[in-house]
Design brief:
heterotrimer; A mainly alpha (327); B alpha/beta (341); C mainly alpha (328); B: 341 residues; 12 helices; 12 strands; C: 328 residues; mainly alpha; two-stranded antiparallel ribbon; 13 helices; 64% helix; 1% strand; elongated
């Protein structure tokens, strides 16, 4: 249990650090960017909105840094993420709510799929060392993991979208439809998400396969695997119960780091496909210099990653009894 | 090069089966490395009677563990069994497929390894590891499995409540003993042990050895016990085999080998372990190091380090000679006796 | 484990002490060179890197045209005059691709080197100094590790419009050093308690000596692997940022080529070369680093090395056992 407590403490601490980072960033930049922003939007926004930005970014306020920080935290905790400049006057939280499900679906499903498939293929590659799988896999996937996510996306658009017309390649759903919980709409969403999902899957699966294969090879050399052989257990049981069960543990902690990569890739993939998820929103906000939206998105993405890591830690605690006792 | 029935003294507990449990003939194992083929075990032959305790000693790298795993058909890449036969109760294990071996594994032939921390699956409870061995051999009833698990743990003096524990929750000695308990699950005919005491302190070593010997007398299985600690095993073994550079250097009843070693290497080994009760003698080691087995020397493999080496030792490979009740791979020792098997 | 390994045979018995126990830096480099030559993957990767470096230093040898001059016909397809065609602005694509190598390679190598340097310092300091230093440094590193780098990069670079290559490199280094630092710290911790370091301390050597002369050489392969891995990641990250229009869109690099391609809807207007070639080049450069890195993995972890003959099915060698004797 101490293990989980430690990880939970890390979660909270890191969360605090990210929130603070988010707070400090604009204030640390040479020439507070909000000033330029205010100048740009001067005639176009109401004085109230301008004041809100000033407060959020600490311009022209008489508050010192500490009290700014307190009001910032207070705003966060009450769900007040500011007002979006691109979609003025919609509050940021509403804008995000519209996009978050699409990204969750795309990234969530793809990551889990990549993990499962990658792990299974990695296990197989290690099991049949020296076979064709083992010789082809490593170089192929080393190369695919070096290819930019968005390039794969562009390639898919070209081949399957433009040339073959098999799948749509623009937006998360047909713009003529309006979001509803009907089967046809959901089907449309799924259709639109196939190409982006493949792009993400193809690029991220390589890492899983390789690391699983490597840890599996090391695990197969362990004494307890030999002991399992000596006991006359079936190959399948040895492979899963003894080898894979142990080989996957270091992979789970690597999950934490790879989630960051997948999220990064998702931003670019969404951009290429005009897929209206959080990543696309981020780029839009970037173009429009919509700092409140950008900050909120960054925070949200970070929190999501932290949660995913915490989940991976919990799963590790379940699978590895040593973490439960040692702590 | 056979030990033959007549050379074997009648010692040790009465075994359960008649006829030898194990007949090893000309067993050879190589490692395929980038530098070429390395012969780790060369032409080893011996018999093991039912219920007999054979100790195999030698320094690190002499091939004793490789030999053990070759016998148990547990070699892994890059080791390959080059030649020889392993007759276990009349069946040549070398020719069997994995599927055929499975019915012999653990039921008739079990294994105890050096470090229980490494040999036990860290993510499974002791109970689970006992039960999957039993399930693999057709025992399905839960009560049977639990009953037998409790029984074997009691045999080694561990409280059955520890069935629910994970390996890392037990002390080193308890882990080792539970590994031995696991090996007893089907009361096998042969238990091979690879340095099971090396990871323990001296006191625990002794008590574990006593436990093993007691179990052997109770249940009547044969033991092959690999270790580098000659003096420890000699208190418990019926016969002793000294290995050097992949070959059998000396093989015979423990008392004979221990009291009157005939191979200069055996002598050297013994002199490195002074007796705690005997007179104070200066410690002598064996200078030099074992040969590179990728390119073994032409003649006797021990010649470069032998204090009694002669020119003829370096000429041709040396075979095993009968000297009284012992087999020795040494020209000096062997030539005191008539040559020939 | 008492079992013999292929490597253990032929080496002196434990009674004979090994010199120092650590791998000398010179030995490591020699091994690396031999391994690169013999390993197909490493060789391919290294060759690619050499080609790219040549293009970066001497682009005019291959590409005569000025990459920025907008003087040619617009949106031309590939032809003898323009091997890859031209952009919507009338620039020669081939020239852009070749000249773009320089900026991309500079970013990769410089940020990789600096990032590795920072990783070494942070990782080593945390591992070696321990205590409060370790806790603080480690925490900073862990936070930066967990924060998704690309969004962070976007935010930082967004606040610094028109940031040039040096700024880009600086930002990449600060956000990307954490992975390497973590690995180096782990390695330092495991090496710190080894006997030969104790011996050095007992000899009275100062800490800085111990670090420089004893610890760092033993981690040569890890450091090289960190450099290569970081280089790959930074190439992709920088390209991604430029693709989005961050950084200086008027510079000539593969990332900015992609940006302009996307801006001009190159895919939809059949200008495939414009859209696909820069991405392919980025992938190729990244793959080159990754291949060399992969070969490194095999060198440093002998278990992963290609065992010459033995194929396995599960745990058993598929190689048929030779000359199995029939029983007497």
């Amino acid at each position: 249990m101490r293990f989980l407590l430690r990880r939970a403490a890390f979660f909270v601490l890191t969360l605090w650090a990210c929130v603070t980072l988010n707070f400090l960033l604009p204030r640390l930049m040479p020439g507070n960017p909000a000033i330029a922003l205010l100048a740009k939007f001067h005639g176009r926004l109401s004085p109230v909105a301008l004041k809100a930005i000033e407060i959020a970014f600490g311009v022209n306020t008489k508050q010192n840094l500490a009290s700014q920080y307190v009001s910032y935290l207070h705003d966060l905790l009450t769900g007040n993420l500011g007002t979006s400049l691109t979609f003025f006057p919609t509050p940021v939280s509403v804008v995000i709510r519209g996009a978050i499900l699409y990204t969750l679906g795309l990234v969530g499903v793809t990551t889990i799929l990549a993990f499962i498939l990658g792990t299974l293929i990695g296990i197989l590659g290690a099991w049949r060392r020296g076979g064709w799988l083992d010789s082809i896999l490593p170089p192929v996937f080393v190369i695919t993991s070096a290819i930019p996510y968005f390039w794969v996306g562009m390639l898919l658009i070209l081949v399957f979208g433009i040339q073959l017309h098999w799948f749509p390649y623009d937006f998360a759903y047909d713009p003529s439809l309006s979001p509803s919980l009907t089967l046809s709409f959901i089907g449309n969403v799924i259709e639109h998400s196939i190409l982006p999902a493949i792009a993400l899957l193809v690029t991220s699966i390589g890492g899983w396969i390789l690391t699983m294969r490597n840890t599996m090879i090391t695990t197969l050399a362990e004494d307890y695997v030999k002991m399992a052989r000596a006991k006359g257990l079936s190959s399948r049981r040895i492979m899963f119960d003894y080898a894979a069960r142990n080989a996957i543990l270091p992979n789970l902690s690597g999950f934490a780091m790879s989630i960051g990569f997948v999220v990064s890739g998702a931003v670019l993939v969404e951009f290429v496909f005009n897929y209206n998820g959080l990543g696309y929103l981020l780029v839009q906000a970037l173009d429009a210099e919509d700092y409140p939206l950008m900050q909120a998105l960054f925070l949200l993405i970070t929190v999501a990653v932290l949660i995913a890591i915490l989940l991976a830690d919990i799963i590790t605690a379940i699978l590895d009894p040593r973490t439960r006792s040692a702590g | 090069m056979r030990t033959g029935q007549t050379d074997r003294l009648d010692i040790g507990p009465a075994g359960r089966t008649s006829g030898p449990v194990l007949e090893i003939r000309d067993l050879s194992v190589s490692y395929q490395t980038k530098r070429g083929n390395v012969r780790a075990v060369e032409d080893v032959s011996f018999d093991l009677a039912s219920g007999e305790f054979l100790g195999i000693v030698g320094e690190s790298g002499c091939g004793k563990s490789t030999l053990l795993f070759a016998i148990a058909q547990l070699l892994s890449a890059p080791a390959v069994l080059d030649a020889g036969s392993v007759m276990f109760e009349g069946v040549n294990l070398v020719n069997l497929s994995e599927h055929q071996l499975a019915s012999i594994r653990w039921k008739k032939l079990s294994l105890v390894m050096q470090s229980a921390m490494n040999a036990l699956n860290p993510v499974k409870t002791i109970a689970a590891q006992f039960s999957d061995a039993m399930r693999a051999h057709g025992v399905t009833s839960k009560s049977d499995i639990t009953g037998r698990s409790v029984e074997v743990l009691r045999m080694v003096g561990i409280d059955p409540v520890h069935l629910k524990s994970y390996p890392h929750q037990l002390s080193g000695g308890m882990r080792q003993r539970s590994m031995i308990a696991m090996a007893m699950l089907f009361t096998p005919d042969l238990v091979v042990m690879d340095e099971p005491t090396s990871a323990l302190d001296v006191v625990a070593q002794r008590s574990l050895m006593v436990q093993i010997k007691e179990l052997q007398q109770q249940l009547g299985f044969a033991i092959i016990f690999v270790t580098h600690d000659m003096s420890l095993v000699s208190h418990f073994s019926d016969r002793l085999m000294v290995m050097y550079a992949g070959q059998v250097a000396e093989l015979g009843p423990t008392r004979s080998v221990f009291d009157t070693p005939r191979h200069p290497y055996s002598t050297g080994l013994l002199e490195a372990f002074p007796s705690i009760r005997g007179p104070k003698v200066p410690l002598t080691g064996i200078p030099g190091s074992p040969p590179d087995l990728a390119r073994p020397p032409e003649g006797c493999r021990f010649a470069p380090r032998c204090p009694q080496v002669q020119d003829r030792c370096k000429a041709d490979p040396v075979r095993l000679y009968h000297v009284e009740d012992v087999l020795v791979r040494c020209l000096r020792a062997g030539n005191g006796v008539s040559s020939g098997d | 484990m008492a079992i013999l390994t292929g490597a253990a045979l032929g080496e002196p018995a434990p009674g004979v002490a090994e010199p120092g126990g650590q791998v000398q830096a010179g030995q490591a480099i020699g091994r690396i060179w031999r391994a690169v030559r013999s390993n197909k993957k490493a060789f391919t990767g290294a060759t690619l890197l050499v080609i790219f470096t040549f293009l970066a230093i001497f682009p005019w040898v291959i590409a005569r045209d000025n990459p920025e001059a907008e003087i040619y016909g617009r949106s031309l397809g590939p032809s003898a005059a323009h091997w890859l065609g031209t952009t919507s602005y009338g620039q020669d694509l081939f020239a852009q691709a070749v000249w773009g190598t320089r900026e991309t390679l500079i970013i990769a190598v410089v940020s990789g080197a600096l990032s590795t340097f920072l990783s070494v310092i942070m990782g080593l300091a945390a591992g070696y100094l321990g205590g409060l230093w370790d806790a603080v440094l480690n925490f900073i590193t862990d936070v930066l590790l967990v924060v998704p780098t690309f969004p962070l990069l976007i935010i930082i670079v967004a606040y610094l419009p028109g940031i040039g290559v040096p700024g880009l490199i600086a930002v990449l280094v600060v956000t990307g050093y954490s992975y390497g630092a973590r690995q180096l710290r782990a390695q330092t911790l495991s090496v710190r308690s080894r006997d030969y370091l104790e011996a050095a301390r007992v000899r009275g050597e100062r800490s800085i000596y111990v670090i420089l002369v004893e610890i760092i050489p033993s981690m040569t392969s890890l450091i090289v692997a960190t450099f290569l891995g970081t280089a790959v990641y930074n190439v992709l990250a920088a390209a991604g940022l430029q693709f989005l229009g961050l950084g200086n869109p008027n510079s000539v690099s593969w990332g900015t080529m992609l940006y302009w391609a996307q801006n001009n809807e190159a895919l939809q207007t059949d200008q495939y070369m414009w859209a696909l070639v820069p991405g392919a080049l980025i992938g190729l450069l990244g793959a080159a680093f990754a291949l060399v890195n992969y070969a490194f993995d095999e060198i440093s972890n002998p278990a992963l090395a290609r065992v010459p003959i033995t194929r396995t099915r599960g745990l058993n060698p598929v190689v048929r056992r030779l000359r199995a004797n029939r029983a007497d």
